[in-house]
Amino acid sequence: MGIPCFSIVSLYGAFLRRSLSSAGLSSQSVEIDSGTTIFFWGPAASTKPPLILIHGFGPHGIWQWRPQITFFATEFDVYVPDLVFFGNSYSNSPERSEVFQAACIAKLLEKIGIRRYSVVGTSYGGFVAYRMSEMWPERVEKVVIASSGVNLRRRDNVELMRRAQSEKIEDLMLPCAARQLRTLLGLCVFRRPPYLPDFFLNDIINKLYSENRKEKLELLRELRLGRDDTVNISPLSQEVLIVWGEHDKIFLLEKAIELSKLVGDKTTLQVIKNASHVPQLENAPRFNNIVKKFLL
Q1: E-assigned strands of 43-149?
Q2: pTM of structure
């Protein structure tokens, strides 16, 4: 009989689930059509203003938003969906674009009776939040785009690959080896993380990156934003907050400055110092207070 392997990732995952349960959220799932099921964390009933937190590539929702969930749950009904092919969310549809992801989250909210809400999206989740706001302005009240190059150009990916010293985007965004994940972490955080042994990084890859790898690769390839060197986005009608880490090495700060001029007249840009691509984790108190002030 084999000795069970100790997994720090599994242990921390259990801690996350207990934290969310203590905040009044529970894990739920909804079949939004005959081939698509979305898993999410949310309250049992909606009694406060709804706030939707949309995660980026990498670990699914609660891993990227834990400090925000417990902070905002006191004043908002917080919903944290797993995008399709992340966590346990799945679809038989051949669609892979961020437009499809936006439609799935909109259908989920309609199914559970949430008619009007604010959205916060980070990185890839910002693409989805932008599309939701663009397609359903009557439903989306306020928009927060965090660390998300919605104004991405094809050459931005080329420059990112140069910074990462990588040949393919999937080697960076979908690491399957410890050295690849170490490179990604180095780009995502401002302060260099302590040395993490390969067994720990491999545990993260196995638990948080390996599922639905084929479909996630297709998601990267089917992004409609950033396909060429012309920015093709429309201004939004809502109030928009853009939050960025000053030293973001995935989407450089210049993208935030440009985006703030493109996305609409009711746009505010807030830059968080000493942070890179995940300011919601690197400086959660600052991030949370900026977003709260905007939403309230």
Answers
A1: 50-54, 77-81, 90-91, 117-122, 140-146
A2: 0.95
